[in-house]
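**Protein fold record**
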Amino acid sequence: MFQSAALLAFSLAAVSYGQQVGTNTAETHPSLPFQTCTASGSCTTVQGKVVIDSNWRWVHGVGSTTNCYTGNTWDATLCPDDATCAANCALDGADYSGTYGITASGNGLTLKFVTQSANKNIGSRTYLMASDTQYQIFKLKNNEFTFDVDMSQLPCGLNGALYFVQMDADGGMSRFPTNKAGAKYGTGYCDSQCPRDIKFINGQANVQGWASSPNDTNAGTGNFGTCCAEMDIWEANSQAAAVTPHPCTVTQQTRCSGTTCGGTAGRYAGVCDPDGCDFNSWRMGNETFLGSGSGFTIDTTQKITVVTQFFTADNTSTGALSEIRRFYVQNGKVIPNSFSNVAGMTTQHNSISDNFCTAQKTAFGDTNSFSSNGGLVQMGTAMDAGMVLVMSVWDDHAVNMLWLDSDYPTTAPATQPGISRGPCATTSGVPATVEAQSPNAQVTYSNIKFGPIGSTFSSSGTGGSSPGTGNGTPPAGGSGGCSTAKYGQCGGIGEPHFV
């Protein structure tokens, strides 16, 4: 989940030592309560908080008001090399609502796309915290994760993304002593794209080799990237949505360089699966499942409850990850994920398994980097270690989000299996246009719940026909909901993946 940050320049004050902490603005984390549930269905509220990623923060000289980074350029005096820059520069506290358009109310978090204060901020990336100095760690195997989302105000070209990455709980402070800021200031990010736009990695700056982006005035890339496994629960806008696991061969947040980062020069040479194994209902052949209006099974003009279940081969938390299932709840009805309907796939699937991924990659003619990076078993290894919840909103300076909601790549005919991913025009998603035309776009995540399979959601309604199990023939009647009280066993998510 790779996105470029709008890092703002202010004029304020600081403190001392390594990848350091500034003192001009007190860091006060917005509250975001969530619930943990038991097998019996009882849930307990946890008083969580959120923190904005360090890439968005003002970076200035220790004891001065001089910007270490302005626009997409490092100050050559303060930052002649990676280690010196980390010693000279500090991350300051954040004005969450005024500068970044991040507001929390009750159990919900709203992320505004464009916020205009002294400077203009574009998008944000936030992490759920267990305390002011530690990220909340989730172990997903043999459990389910549920949340509500309102993405009615996200047009083509935007991505309201909720996902997990294998970050260190303390933001890397214990492994990298020159990191003085830690999770309190949103450090330690990594994902399966091994992003090289991250300004501080492993307690050092990413100055050496830094090249300013040719089409993003706030971003650039350095010599190093930061890699880890990524579980995309939800990458979506009002026109399209995808759930995508991305395994890595590394087993913790890892700094990369050269070809080990992957990238356009050697996309599949890196230590992570950049494409993932995605289930996007439109791409998988059902163009009426999710979209804006009452004509779709899932209506994105209304709030949606999204449930993702992580099954293991032996139904224990220590077993191998074997299947990822998806349900939705809307208007009192539980709705299982759509089934695939793709030429070349002889079995219809409505969940993610290694068999589904192999069949999909074959039918679409895609490189199976998912399998070569260990598939679901390796994804489960990251889950064993624990993962951090990320909530973000962003636009795409690389390929205009076409990989999510339009035809991609644009050099292939849209009729070719796997190319059409959503109804948006191939001319849509240009960041300058999206930012100008949709500055008030936003996404709200709320009502987060986590617990054993079948513990986090229910419905007072009967949804129609009972869905089939994960990888088989869909039942007559299609996409109805479950008719039982608990739905865990019933039925079957910079950030661009370029699959």
About this structure: The mean pLDDT is 89.
